Amino acid sequence: MPDHVVKLIYSYSIINFFFMLTSKDIEFFITIAASRSLAAAARKMNVTPPGVSQRLQQIERKLGVVLAERNARSISLTAEGELLARQGQHILTELENLQQDVSDAKQAISGSLKIVSPLGLGISHIGPLVAEFQRRYPAINVELNLSDAPKWSAHHSPDIMLYIGHLEDSSLKRVVLAKNRRLLLASPAYIQSAPNLNHPRDLAHHRCIALRENDEDATMWRFTDRTNLQTLSVRIAPVLSSNVGQVTKNWCLSGQGIIQRSEWDVRSEIQSGALTELIPGYRLADADIVALMSSDRFRRPGKITVFLGFLQQYLPARLNEDQAGFPENATGQPQLL
């Protein structure tokens, strides 16, 4: 349930003895509360002072309380009047927001949606998910651009940029779509001919392969000891490096050295025995799959919110190889960070 709806219900519970009032009644009283006298309120509303006095009395009779003490020249709100003025304004604001959201929802899932995704993730998972999303919402047109080094540009920004890992730019809004575990890997052929590897520091004696993507330091590999949870960082000297993940993976498969890759990207190779996880007692730093967007797009719900909720619901299942179709009426709201 949206936050503003929760707040609206909460506000009504606080002033539940006002339940007989209409929004027009609340607007009327807020105008009175902001005026120094009934005559001043009458001028603001372009009505006669007796008309203002009569309607105020009607509202007070509805509630069974006195809202304002009045004399010939001024008015003074009672405690109940102060409560109605304060909480009434809050309710009107939330009602306006709710009406706007309902209006937006009518047109939410239409128009265009521009997405940028890492290449490997996009080919394997985002592409099929985008196709399914568009099938469900045929009034929307989706443009999916793939890159192994997606960049955010304020002048040419997409609606959503999918990203793996940590981004320094704190001005962008971030939504976690799926947890992403990284593994240290090598082929059996490499392991057979290479020195022993029992600790991350032993990597200094091995052939390491670096993936240079995003703005991350590709030569700093970070580990956590699963036993005592101590962290350590190891600076590698890569013998091979590339900005394309599939290239580094192919090098590793051919016995050229050690890589770190997302578990979802190498699961089949591990199951077939083509790749082997190394030093499993040490966990590599995770790299969550996140959606990034500018603040103005983040504030508007509609198609972006629905698409993010869709990804949060189905992307983790695909990454874990649970791809047994899509429930026809599934919905989801993203958990925004």
UniProtKB/TrEMBL annotation:
Q: Which domain of life is it from?
A: Bacteria
Query: What range(s) does the HTH lysR-type domain occupy?
Result: 21-78
Q: Pfam families attached here?
A: HTH_1, LysR_substrate
Molecular functions per Gene Ontology: DNA-binding transcription factor activity; sequence-specific DNA binding
Transmembrane residue ranges: none
InterPro entries xrefs: LysR-type_TF_proteobact-type, LysR_HTH_N, LysR_subst-bd, WH-like_DNA-bd_sf, WH_DNA-bd_sf
Quote the SUPFAM superfamilies the UniProt record gives. Periplasmic binding protein-like II, Winged helix' DNA-binding domain
Any one GO biological process: DNA-templated transcription
Keywords assigned: DNA-binding, Transcription, Transcription regulation
Q: Which family does it belong to?
A: Belongs to the LysR transcriptional regulatory family.
UniProt-recorded name of the protein? HTH-type transcriptional regulator DmlR
Q: Which organism is it from?
A: Vibrio aerogenes CECT 7868
User: What is the name of the gene encoding this protein?
Assistant: dmlR_15
